[in-house]
Amino acid sequence: MGRGVRVLLLLGLLHWAGGSEGRKTWRRRGLQPPPQPSEDAPAAGRPVESFPLDFTAVEGNMDSFMAQVKSLAQSLYPCSTQQLDEELRLHLLPNTSVTCNDGSPAGYYLKESKGSRRWLLFLEGGWYCFDRENCDSRYNSIPHFMSSTDWPPTRTGTGILSSQPEENPHWWNANMVYIPYCSSDVWSGASPKSDKTGYAFMGALIIQEVVRDLLGKGLGSAKVLLLAGGSAGGIGVLMNVDRVAELLQELGYPAIQVRGLADSGWFLDNQQYRRTECEDTMTCAPTEGIRRGVRYWNGLVPERCRRRFPEGEEWNCFFGYKVYPTVRCPVFVVQWLFDEAQLIVDNAYLNGPPVQEGQWLYIQNIGRELRHTFKDVSAAFVPSCVSHEVILESHWTDIQVKGTSLPRALHCWDRSLQDGPKAGKAPLKGCPIHLVDSCSWPHCNPSCPAIQDQHTGQEMSVAQFLLHLGVDMHTVAQQQGLEPGRLLGMLGSGS
C-alpha cells in the first residue's frame, strides 16, 4: 500500500467519524469524551491517551489491521460502532408460491451494511430426505428444516457472518444474508407440493427468489456476491453458483461478480466400510441416498454437469469433484480431510469402540482419496482434521494449513480476483490459496478443533485421541519413519 493511499485512508476514516473538526482525540473503547471546552477555554491539563494506528500492518497482517481499524472507529464514533447490530432479521418471501417442504413461505435473514457493495449469502445445511417415510420422520423430529412456522424473528451472525473484525477479519462489513434450509433437497428442487410426494421441494427456486427480492434491498448495486454454504449448503453452492450468475445476467446486472465458498460439501462416492441397509440418510451409502433423493425431488443439476453423464445418472453432479470442473464462477472449497459426515455414511465413524486395523487403514485411505480430488482445484483449504463445517464457527480463525489461516487464505483469494477471474493467473506472492494438508492421519494438524471425550466431556490431545481409538502407535510410527516415543512426544506437544 503506497504512502498516499495510507494518508487518504486515514483522512477517510476521520471524515467518516465526523472529523471535520481539527481537534478530535482518539480514545480507547469504554472512555466517555469529556465536555467540549468553549473557544476561549484553555486546553485541559491532563494527558490524553492516544491510539497508534500502524498502517504497515496492512502489508503483512490484514487481521491485525482490521482490528486496529475497528478500535479506531470505536474511539472516534462510539455511539455507532460500540453497539454494532449483530442481528440478522427475518424476511419471508413475498412470492408465496416458493415454499418450504410443508408449504409455509420460505425466507431469509438479512443484516444490511450501508455503503458496502459486498454481499454474502449463506446457505444452511442439514442433510436431506429421500422418500415419503423418510421425510415424514424428518418433519416430526426436526420440523424447522421443513417449515418456516417457528423460525425466530432474528439470528445472530457468527464466524464469516459476524460483524466483529476480530471474528471475521475480511467480511465483517459486508451485507449478510442467511438462508435457512427448509427444502430437504440439497438446494436442488423446483417442484411444488404434490399428492405423490406430500411435500414441496424448491431449494433451487428459493435461492433464485431470495436473489430477486434482495435486488430491491441494495443487491443491485453490489460489486461482489459471495454465495457460501455449509454441508448440504456447501453442495448447494456448487450446484447453484452459476445459476445465480446467469439469473443476474438475465435481470440486467452483469457487473456483479458472483463467487462461491463451499464448506464441508465435498464428498466421495465411495464404498462403505461396512455395508448397511439404506433406511435413512445416515445409513445409506453415499451414492444410494442421493440417487433416491434426486428421483423423489425431481432435482435440478447444472446443465453443463448433466451433459457429462448418461440420462438417469444426474446424481453424479452432487459430488463436488465431479461438478467442480463444470463450474464457471470462481469457487473456494473448504473441506476437512476426515469429514464427520463422510465417516458416518461410510459406517467408519470414530466415536465408538476402538478401531480395528482394517477400519484405521480405510479411514486413512479416505484422506488420501480426498486429497487427490483437490489436485486441480485452484482455491482450497483442506486441513487433516476430524470435524464438519467451520466457517460459521467463532474459532474458524484459529485453523491453519501450512501456517496460513482460513480467513487469510480467503482474503488472498479475494485479492487474486479483484480484477476479475483470469485463467492461469499466478497466485500472489506470500498469499497462498491452495492449502492441502499432507500429513496422513486424522487430527495430525495441531490447529484442528478440540476433540471431546464423549463419556467424560474432557478435551483430548491428539495422542490421547489416537490411543482412545485403539490405534497401534507403533504401527503409526513405523508408517511415519519415527520411533514410537518420539511420535508420542510430537503429538503431545502439538508438533
Essential attributes:
alpha/beta; disordered N terminus; ten-stranded mixed sheet; 32% helix; 16 helices; single chain; two-stranded parallel sheet; 495 residues; Rossmann fold; 3 domains; 16 strands
What do these coordinates show?
- One of its GO terms (biological process) is negative regulation of canonical Wnt signaling pathway.
- Keywords: Signal.
- One of its GO terms (molecular function) is palmitoleyl hydrolase activity.
- This is Palmitoleoyl-protein carboxylesterase NOTUM.
- Pfam families: PAE (PF03283).
- The structure is a single chain.
- This protein is α/β, with parallel strands linked by helices.
- It has three domains: 52-83; 87-449, 3-Layer(aba) Sandwich (Rossmann fold); 455-495, no CATH class.
- Helix content is 32%, strand content 12%.
- The protein has helices spanning 3-16, 57-60, 62-76, 78-81, 132-141, 203-215, 232-250, 286-297, 303-306, 320-323, 340-345, 357-373, 406-416, 462-468, 473-480, 484-493, and strands at residues 87-92, 107-111, 118-123, 154-156, 175-179, 224-230, 257-263, 331-334, 338-339, 380-382, 386-387, 400-401, 404-405, 434-436, 451-452, 459-460.
- It has a ten-stranded mixed β-sheet. A two-stranded parallel ribbon has the order 9-11. Strands 12-13 form a two-stranded antiparallel ribbon.
- Strand 12 and strand 13 form a beta hairpin.
- Helix 6 packs across helix 7 (232-250) and helix 15 (473-480) crosses helix 16 (484-493).
- 41% of the residues are buried.
- Residues 1-60, 76-83 and 420-424 have low confidence and may be disordered.
